[in-house]
Amino acid sequence: MSQKLVIIGLLGVLFGTCAANVCIDAGLETTDGFLPNATDCTMYVSCFKGLPYDMACPINYFFDPTLVKCSATYVCPAPSTCPETGIVKQPVAGVCAEYSLCIDGTAYPKTCAAGLAFSEAKQNCVLAADAGCIENKCATITTDPKIYGDDVCSANYYICDKAGEPIAFTCDTGLIFDATVLDCIVGECPVV
């Protein structure tokens, strides 16, 4: 060990500023390896001779703790937004039929039955047309522009931006969005 590290270690012990070493905590004091970053899955920790080094994955890659490497297909888990106490139901952003049942800080994924969607206002699954939810169908981006309409007949349609977010548009009065031609056409929605 270098003289500089010994001095830094002694100062840390004397002044109580010595931080925990994630490599040593993981048993990598004599073996090199990789660990996930505790807060950012675009980063990872490279342990070399017991010392941690923060490293970044390439753009559009995320550290997969199972494969122990950066991967283009790994999906980072969403941070829990559940309150530490109590029971609440929370929507899943961009997915109308799913919600999280939070019980004392733990999220349990739930899915509404077919034809239903989660309503945050009613804290329950309701008829999809009554939920007021917009499904994010932009999650899979292609090189072509992705355009889609509401699941029910309407003048509303969406175009996906490069970030995978739907941008809402509305056809002019007297026009409806036709999913077969992906454009506004003259017509009316059938009365149910």
From TrEMBL:
It comes from the Eukaryota. Residues 1-20 form the signal peptide. This is Chitin-binding type-2 domain-containing protein. SUPFAM superfamilies: Invertebrate chitin-binding proteins. One of its GO terms (cellular component) is extracellular region. Pfam families: CBM_14. Keywords: Chitin-binding, Disulfide bond, Glycoprotein, Repeat, Signal. GO terms for molecular function: chitin binding. Residues 20-78, 79-135 form the Chitin-binding type-2 domain. The lineage of its organism: Eukaryota, Metazoa, Ecdysozoa, Arthropoda, Hexapoda.
